[in-house]
Amino acid sequence: MNEQNSFSPNPAPKQGLINFDPIREKSRLLKERQTLCESLLGPLCWNKEGTSALGVCPGIELHTTPDGPRDCIVYIDGPVISLNCFHFSCQEEIEKITAELRDRDPLTLEEKLLQVPSPSGAREKLPKQNRKLIETIISRAGGAFARFLKAPGTRDIPDPEAIIDQLYPDNPWLCIARISPRDAGTTRRENFRGSERTWEWIVPNPMTAPRIWNRRGYWSYRCAEICGPRKYRVLDFDSGSYDEQIALIRYLATKEVPRAWPFMIVESGNRSLHAWYTFLDSDFFARAVALGADRKTGDIAHLFRFPGGRRTNNGNEQKIIYYVNPQ
Ligand SMILES: [Zn+2]
């Protein structure tokens, strides 16, 4: 069974992820990842759960400001191993070690054979912002958020675990990240059950494979080539008050065509509202872009704030403020 992996000298572990027992699988994986991290980083001080550890930064000699005991931390409970150091001057070394940790990661070795690239579709043509229309809509936006909060769907919202189950039945591959989009990795939905509130980012569209070996000779964990067909569309207005953002979302649902109302609205934990739709029409997205929605979110592999997750830089909850089961 010791099948050689063409990209790494390590043999592929015998046990696959099919029919896995998530709890046993998780503890086995944590132990293997702990051993791997200590082989590259030296002795580490693990937290009680064994999911993250403090250690000496591998680039400590490059630090230009004083060292602290909590500078360097490794996280091993995500779909990919993440290594972070508080200092900036050592980042090249941190990236080098991170790449090595990921390359030798026992989890991703098991998944390497599951690469099934899929066509991602043509790029959407998008219009310019219609400033005049935006000004008109937001000039009448006063009180829109307070009125919205009276709508059905803003109360008795299920917890994030139940919502993720409703949005992603059948245990698909999902791309999630903590701390930074750079740390995105793809895993089965069941592999992060119970930790939903600790994640920061998610790609709304399920993936067809955990990663792909790209032409530049790196593993790519998040790209259009491994995204499945579009399942959800998310709009991010990213500026203006909640009144103004809700007024724009409402305009898209009540005026002109094609029109749609979201099934979920998530607070970014900073200033913006993310509206999730099952309506995938590209003309609808073009209308939203004309009203100021972020055009980059048309990218099928774009990361959005994890519904009900937590924002690392300020600790804020990414609260789900509206939800109606789309199924
Ligand atoms: Zn460092």
Produce the secondary structure layout.
Elements: E1 4-5, E2 8-11, H1 22-41, E3 45-46, E4 52-55, E5 72-75, E6 82-85, H2 91-103, H3 106-111, H4 131-139, H5 144-148, H6 160-167, E7 173-177, E8 185-188, E9 201-202, E10 212-213, E11 219-220, E12 233-236, H7 242-254, E13 264-267, E14 273-277, H8 282-290, E15 304-305, E16 320-323
Antiparallel strand pairs: 1-2, 3-4, 4-5, 5-6, 7-8, 7-9, 9-15, 10-11, 12-14, 13-14, 13-16
Helix pairs in contact: 4-7
Q: Could you give the order of the helices and strands?
A: EEHEEEEHHHHHEEEEEEHEEHEE
How do the strands line up in the largest sheet?
Answer: 3-4-5-6
Bound molecules: zinc ion
CATH architecture of the largest domain: 2-Layer Sandwich
From the structure above, extract its key features.
alpha+beta; four-stranded antiparallel beta sheet; 2 domains; disordered N terminus; binds zinc ion; single chain; 8 helices; Alpha-Beta Plaits; 25% helix; 327 residues
